[in-house]
Amino acid sequence: MSGPVVSAVEGSPVSQVDDVWDAVIGQPAAVTAMRRALTADEVAHAWLFVGPGDVGQRELSRALAMALNCPDAPAPDRGCGKCTTCTRIARGVHPSVEDLEPEGAHHVVDSVRSDWIPIATRTLTEGRRRVLRIVAADRMNDAAQNAFLKILEEPPPSVVWILDTQDDGMLLDTVLSRCRRLDLRPWGPDALEAMATRLGVAPELRTSVARAALGSPRRLNDLTDPDVAEARRRHLGIINRLATAGPGDVVPIAKELGAWSRDRANALKKVHQDQMVAYEEAFGVDGSRGWPPGVKARLTRRFERLERQERRRALDLVLDDLGSWLRDLLLIQSGGTSDAMVNIDHLDAAERDAPRLSPRDVVAGLEAVAQCREALDRNGNPELQLERLLFVIALPLYARGVQPAV
Predict the structure, then answer these.
(1) What is 229-244 written as a DSSP string?
(2) Which residue stretches of 70-154 are H helix?
């Protein structure tokens, strides 16, 4: 597979598309609804994007921001995509557009009061409308939602809020009722294979990589990273390893998975350290002296947040791999065809593992994957949660007296 590339998830450069909305792939209904609202001058003050993460939320919000702020807009429903305003919005560096990320596992009330409200109420220095996107809005705790509700009920006329959520059931009814809802879908196979082609995936691998992406363009982009591709192979071999070595291998495997997730975060940390040095050299800063007030602290917090997110993303890749493998085993056990498999490139290994667990054991494993993810959402210790998950899978293997594969 190819090396690092710029993915559609990160935002296609607007110069590569004729219409800025072309950067929003796989969401035609959402694009149509938003463009109609722009044309009719009926843009809601708050939008609720409901769907799996990273399937077009960023691109939708930036295309909306271009339409609202472009000084050379060719039509009410779109920006030109070429002016300084549009290109800066596309890169995420325009002051009228901000993504509000969770500081840790959750958005907390202090962030709403000290960051969100001041950002929303300060005077615009550029552009006409400010677009504020709350990433993982369903991670707002109740206190944060109640604090946010105050500004949502009486929004500044220059602000458009976008709430990204995978589970709208986690949001208060009073918040939901003040937002216009748009449902976003996982990408279909055609869109994913087209993206795989753009990313330089070899023709013979495109179908299998698109299936392994689980409808997520971001996961597909991850799978073009050789480190992630090799890690996936190891993750799909966990049941065989447990069947061969028994429950005694649970703790070592959990430690290896935890170490891999830390390595991913540490690689990003090294990038951030190099960036900090470059900033200091460019601006003539000597250590902590010479920084504008608060700038170094904000950069440090941002880098630390991104490093935590990278580790969590790595853990999610583990859980996605293991969960998709268990679903494939259940498919084989139920007599399904390989056409419906996720990991079609590992068909022989799946047929080897399927008889090793009963359907009930596989379902228990899938429930354990979901419970592990929920525990990580609550800041549970990653290695401890992975151990619990792996024991759920390993103990039935041991009880059934599974022998090493021949």
Answers:
(1) HHHHHHHHTHHHHHHH
(2) 84-91, 109-111, 117-121, 142-153
The kind and range of the H/E element at 165 are strand 159-165
The span from the CA of 214 to the CA of 4, in Å, is 20
Task: Identify the CA nearest to 189 among candidates 350, 403, 79, 341.
Answer: 341
What's the pLDDT at 402?
A: 53
Q: Compute the residue count for the chain.
A: 406
Q: By C-alpha distance, which of 354, 299, 305 is closest to 332?
A: 354
Strand pairing of 130-134 and 46-50? unpaired
- pLDDT confidence of residue 12: 39
Instruction: Name the packing angle between helices 226-236 and 238-245 (round to 10°).
Output: 40
Q: Identify the helix (H) or strand (E) that includes residue 67.
A: helix 57-69
For the chain, give percent helix, strand, coil, nearest 5: 60, 10, 30
CA distance 202 to 57: 28
Q: Give per-residue pLDDT as tens, 151-163.
A: 998 888 999 999 9
